[in-house]
Amino acid sequence: MMALFEKLVNIDSNSYDQAGVNKISSILQKEFEEIGLKVIVHREKKFGNHLSITSSNSIKPKILIIAHMDTVFPKGESSKRPFQIIGDKAYGPGVNDEKASHVQVLYAMKALKHYGLASFHNVHILFNSDEEIGSPSSKTLIKEAAEGKEYCLVVECGRPNEGVVTSRKGVGSFKMSVTGKSAHAGVEPEIGRSAIEEIAYKIIKLHQLNKIEKGLTVNVGLIKGGTSANTVSPDAEAVIDVRVANKEQAEDVVKEIYSIAEEETIKGTETKIEGQISRPPMEMTKESQELFERVKQTGKELGLHLHGEATGGASDASFTASEGVPTIDGMGPVGEFSHSETDEYTNIQSLIERTALLAKTIESLTKKEMEEQQ
After folding, report:
1. Fewest CB within 10 A of the end CB: N or C in the chain?
2. Per-residue pLDDT reduced to its tens digit, 70-85
3. Can you give the residue ranges of the Peptidase M20 dimerisation domain (predicted)?
4. Is 293 known to be catalytic?
């Protein structure tokens, strides 16, 4: 496990590094084919290839497992700080998010095959190449894979103190652009129409939409505009990040953002808005709660005391949850500080524990399904 782990971490696989991601996918394809699984390569022109993995004997597997092969780190990062072990932790670019999970999924499947379990044939594994940038080329593939599934286990990194993720916020991104009229700020400012002033009013209103206690956040994180200090600005732009706790919140906040865009405080300016909620919220449903209880019980059998956590971060779990598939995320090995250039780590012992958890959860869910069919 550690040899493969090191090999994967020492290959750069930024979302836009197609060659790097394809090196990862080629290694994984070979590893999964060697244990008798069928791998379909979904080739992409812009991003890396996606892998769809099932047993040759499976007809309609009911369990979907999702992991992503891309990282946020630029090409050359693995040469600067290659995989290393310090104490009980592994370090390196993408070690926690989420190359440990690739190893986990492979060895969970190896365990099921080793014991000759029928659950080996009840799994559909999807490795995608573009999760870190919103899954633009794999979103449709994920939704198609979710069809007919009864459960989805997403192996984003597990949380410290034996946590898994039971809900995630939905995520949206919007760009607001204001057009005004330029003029000399000292000679004839009265004929100008300041786009910066107009967008400033709008930014204040946007931030007033925040309801942090209810899980709604609206943040203008980037602004730009104007041409020079002594010119009334003819243009301005703001990029807005939105996080929502549920679908109703998403619908309401989108209407409010567009309403603010339509308001005109500085006469003679024009505002355009574009964007959407790109990842729906992963909400805890009755069915997801039942799935979590089964995962929790399985963990207990392994000596783990799992608890569920909500997070504001995004993952592909949102897509399966929005398709009505009971989904639990954070099933991967435990670590912290994903995307950090220095601190990201994976706890090595958790790699073993979470591999056992994944394998036994697959077996438990398969037994449940077989019992219900009798």
Report:
1. C
2. 999 999 999 999 999 9
3. 167-267
4. no
